[in-house]
Design goal:
Mean pLDDT: 95
Largest sheet: 6 strands, mixed
Number of domains: 1
Number of helices: 7
Helix content: 25-40%
Distance between the termini: 53 Å
Shape: globular
Strand content: 15-25%
Order of helices and strands: EHEEHEHHEEHEEHEEEH
Strand order of the largest sheet: 7-4-6-5-10-11
Structural class: alpha/beta
Low-confidence stretches: none
C-alpha cells in the first residue's frame, strides 16, 4: 500500500486513476476518513466490505460532485432539493429511490441509492476526475470506533490494509460526528441516523417549506 499526501496538487487525479482500475483509496472527507472505490462496480465494492469486515446486507453510500450527478442514479424529489439547498454540504447523506437501470455496486439487490455532496476540495476534485460516484463508508473495522489519523486507522484495519492501493493523508481530522442520514424515499422523510447535523435542523427546513 502506498501513502501519499492529500494536499498534493496531483493527489485527486492520482486517486481517480486508481479508481478507474478498480482499486481502493483511503481518503479524508468532511467528517471522517473514508474508503473509496467505484461505487457502481460489484468487484470494487466487494473489496470495501472485505476490508471493513462489514455485513454485505448493510448498504454503503457514495459521494457525488453535485445534485446533477446524483440525479443520474437516484430519484431526486422536492424534499431532497430543499434539504440540499439549505443544509450544510458534506454533513448529510440522502437516501433516495434508485433509478431502475442502476443495479450494480452499492445499488445491487436494493431499491435505494445513498449519497452526499462533500464540501471538501480533495473529495470534489477526486469525484470530478473520476466522473462517477465513489464509496464513502468510514475507514474503520465494522463495529469499531472510527479513528481520525491515518496511523491509527491503519493500525485498526490491520492486515486488511493489503486491500487498499493508496492512503491519502490529510492529517488528523478534527472531532466530528458522522453525517446525518435522511431517508427521502417516502413522502415524509425519516432520519435514520442523527449525526453532525441535528435532527431539529432538518425538521426546521421542512417546516419552513411547508409554511
Amino acid at each position: 500500500m502506498e501513502i501519499a499526501s492529500a494536499n498534493d496538487s496531483t493527489a485527486a487525479s492520482k486517486a481517480a486513476q486508481i479508481l478507474h482500475l478498480g482499486g481502493v483509496v483511503l481518503y479524508p472527507t468532511d467528517t471522517l476518513y473514508g474508503l473509496g472505490t467505484d461505487a457502481l462496480s460489484n468487484e470494487a465494492v466487494a473489496k470495501i466490505y472485505m476490508i471493513k469486515g462489514r455485513d454485505e446486507g448493510k448498504p454503503i453510500h457514495a459521494i457525488v460532485s453535485d445534485l446533477a450527478m446524483a440525479e443520474r442514479y437516484g430519484e431526486i424529489n422536492d424534499t431532497v432539493r430543499t434539504l440540499v439547498g439549505v443544509l450544510p454540504k458534506g454533513r448529510v447523506t440522502f437516501i433516495v429511490k434508485k433509478k431502475s437501470q442502476i443495479n450494480t455496486g452499492i445499488a445491487k439487490d436494493i431499491t435505494t441509492f445513498g449519497f452526499r455532496i462533500p464540501d471538501n476540495d480533495f473529495c470534489i476534485e477526486m469525484i470530478r476526475a473520476f466522473a462517477a460516484p465513489i464509496t464513502a463508508t468510514s475507514a474503520n473495522k465494522a463495529g469499531e470506533i472510527p479513528q481520525r489519523s491515518l496511523g491509527k486507522i491503519l493500525s485498526q484495519l490491520g492486515s486488511s490494509i493489503g486491500g487498499i492501493d493508496c492512503a491519502f493523508d490529510g492529517g488528523e481530522l478534527t472531532e466530528s460526528k458522522p453525517s446525518t442520514v435522511v431517508d427521502c424515499t417516502n413522502a415524509k422523510p425519516t432520519i435514520l441516523r442523527e449525526g453532525v447535523v441535528p435532527a431539529i435542523d432538518v425538521w426546521k427546513v421542512l417546516d419552513l417549506r411547508a409554511s
